[in-house]
Structure formats: C-alpha cells, structure tokens
Amino acid sequence: MKSIRSMWLIAFLILPVAVAQQAPAFILMDQEPHHHLALQNDYVKVFKVEVNPGDSIIMHRHDGDTVAIAVGEQMVTVGFPDKPEVHQKNPDGQLRLQKSGYVHSTRVDPGTAYHTVAVELLHPQGNPRNLCAAVMVGLPLNCAENRQGVSSAQYIAQPQFESDQTRVQLMRVLPGQNVSVRDLKNFQLIVALDPGTISPASGKGPGQTLRAGDFIWIDKGGPSRTFKNSGKGEGRFVEFTFSPEDLKGKLL
After folding, report:
1. How open is the CA angle 27-65-208, to the nearest 5 degrees?
2. Is the dihedral of CA 150, 218, 136, 37 positive or negative?
C-alpha cells in the first residue's frame, strides 16, 4: 500500500511539471526581432516594424492594447496558436486595435512589402469604442452625423477610435495645404502616412521632414505646429491625443 501511495504522490508532483512543459510560451512584442522600439514615455511605446517579402514576424504576445497602423498596402497570412491561419490584405492607412493578450504571427507574401507602426498604449483604456472606422474589428461604429469628419479647404479630419484616455483621428491634408497641430491641454503623437513637413506655427525655428512611417511626439503645453503638404496628393497623418492622468489613473 505504501508503494502505491508513493507512486500516486510522485505522479501528482510530476504531472503539473509535465503540463507546464507542454504549454506554449510566447515572447513579448518587445522581444520580437522585427519590432524596433523607437519611442517610450509614460503613455506609449512606439515600434517601427519592417519585414522583407517572404519573411515572417514570429509568434508573440501583446501585453498592452496596441494600435497597428499599416504604412502601405500589405498582403499577409496571420497565424494564431489556437485557430486556423487567415490570409488577408491590410489596406494602406488601416488602423487595427490589438487587445492586450493578443497572440499572433505574421507571414508576408513574397513580392510584397510590410511596414507598420505599432503604438502600444501603456495606460488601461476605459470604455474603448470605434468612432467612424472599425479599429476594433467586429464591434459597431459610433459615428454620429456630427462626428463623421470635419472638412475645410485645407483638410478632412476623420475620427477613428476613442477611449476615456485616448482619441485617434485620421487627418487628410489636401495638396499644397497646411493644417495646425495644436492641443495645448493634451499630449499628442503624430504618425505620418505620407511625406510632409511639420514646423513651428510661429515660423521661427527649423522644420522637420516626415516620411511615411515617421512620427513626432508633442508635449502638453508646447508650441503649436503646422503640418505642410507640398505633394500633389493628400498628405495623411494619424493623430493620437492623450488625456493627462493623475496617479490614480483618473482623468484630470
């Protein structure tokens, strides 16, 4: 009887170890070799991701809600640990929210390019919702008639996503036009989808040339900037606005 009890005890101790060894372990996005950290502060981590045709982003896990911005059209196959692969086209300028805990790999089709800017949101996002784009796939839009976009002779502003902490919109600056980038009460992240120049609105100081996929962080209370589109087509950029928060995570 003692030998039987001993065998059961040994099995009881070994089984969790065996199960743990069988459970897949996934690296974090920070550890995935194609994700290059380009900015980190109290609000975001910004990764630049460029993958050669036929190459793959290996299976990894997102520890924070991440907005993936497609820079150029992409043809990819997305893999998952627990369901079939999905072959899909990501249109140029597409925004997708990848929720915390999301695990995937991405294989790029031969002959196609892959360029993404991944913006990891470091604060929990309360009450997240789509506005006028399906940033969160499968969830309804909240695109009231008065929020479908603001148009002017210079630009078109199209709301994309909103939470209690973050607001994201797509700005489409018309050819040869300028648009003011100004929100003195909040921090902002500007991600260029097309070439342009961003300069101090005062005209004093040097401008910064942005290529597709480049970005700039603007501190709360800083000077206003101007985005200038000198091209013959639209000059698009994605504008993130972050509400200041106190230590308890509540909006000020």
Report:
1. 100
2. positive
Which H or E run contains 8? helix 2-22
- Give the architecture (CATH level 2) of 129-242: Sandwich (2.60)
DSSP 174: P
**Superfamily holding 27-121:** Jelly Rolls (2.60.120.10)
**Interval 71-87: pLDDT, tens:** 999 999 999 999 999 99
What are the beta bridge partners of residue 156? 151, 172
3-state secondary structure of 73: coil
pTM for the full model?
0.85
Ramachandran angles phi, psi of 113, nearest 5°: -100, 160
pLDDT single digits (tens) 148-186: 556 678 999 999 999 999 999 999 999 999 999 887 789
User: Per-domain residue ranges for the chain?
Assistant: 27-121, 129-242
The answer to whether the CB of 132 falls within 8 A of the CB of 147 is yes
